[in-house]
Structure formats: structure tokens, C-alpha cells
Amino acid sequence: MKVELKDTGPYVDIRPLPDYRARFWTRPPASSVSQREMSAYRYLEWQLTGVRDVRKAQAWVDDHSDEYEECTLYASAPVNDTIIWLRVSGWDPNRAIWDSRESFES
After folding, report:
1. Distance of alpha carbon 72 from alpha carbon 3, whole angstroms
2. Sign, Cα dihedral of 86, 89, 38, 33
3. To bridge 37 with a disulfide, which of 18, 33, 52, 98 should be the other Cys (CB 3.0-4.6 Å)?
């Protein structure tokens, strides 16, 4: 059987070079926040400009991530007249907390 693969898009052109954002996630100390806030993560965000390669952006994140629980790397992409941020690696732990609560309550 012959199989022909076709890529059908949609396509996002990320030229000129994208900017990258790195988010470093951590939970606040239990003694400094309320019980409700304790479950939420906070993040420190860095904008990486002039980085020409996603591997270099990821290497920068890896080099600076030791003291944080999670890290997320995003790349910018123009879509029409707006800029969107595409997740390259990592995850949003706050999103995961709320997603799991929704599935638990359903």
C-alpha cells in the first residue's frame, strides 16, 4: 500500500527571529501565604532577545533552572497583527492544577 504524507498546516511564520520567554516556577513558602495561595505556583519571567537558535534559548533555561521547581520556554510568533507565545518546552504547573481540579469535579 502506498501512503502519501501531506502537511496541511496551518503555518506560522516566525520571521524575523522570535523572541523567547523563560518562566521559572516555584511555590511560595507555606508560612508567607494563605492556604488557598499555597497550591498556586509563582513565576519569574525573563525575556531573551537576540537569541538566534532555540537550542541556545533552551540551554540558557537549563543553566538557570537549578533553584526552581519547573521551567517553561516560549517563542514568539506573529499572527496577523498580534504576537502569540508558543510553548517550546516545559509546562505551566498552575494550568495543570486547574485542569486536574476540573476533571476531578466533573
Report:
1. 36
2. negative
3. 33
Task: Indicate the burial class of 95 (C-beta count within 10 angstroms; 0-12, 13-18, 19 or more).
Answer: exposed
Q: In 3-state terms, what secondary structure has residue 83? A: strand
Query: Which DSSP symbol is given to 48?
Result: E
Question: Can you tell me which residue has the cell 502506498?
Answer: 2
- Copy the grid coordinates of residue 5: 504524507
Cα 1 to the chain's mean position, in Å?
Answer: 40
Question: 59-80 pLDDT, tens per residue?
Answer: 999 998 887 888 999 998 888 8
Phi and psi at residue 23, to the nearest 5° = -115, 130
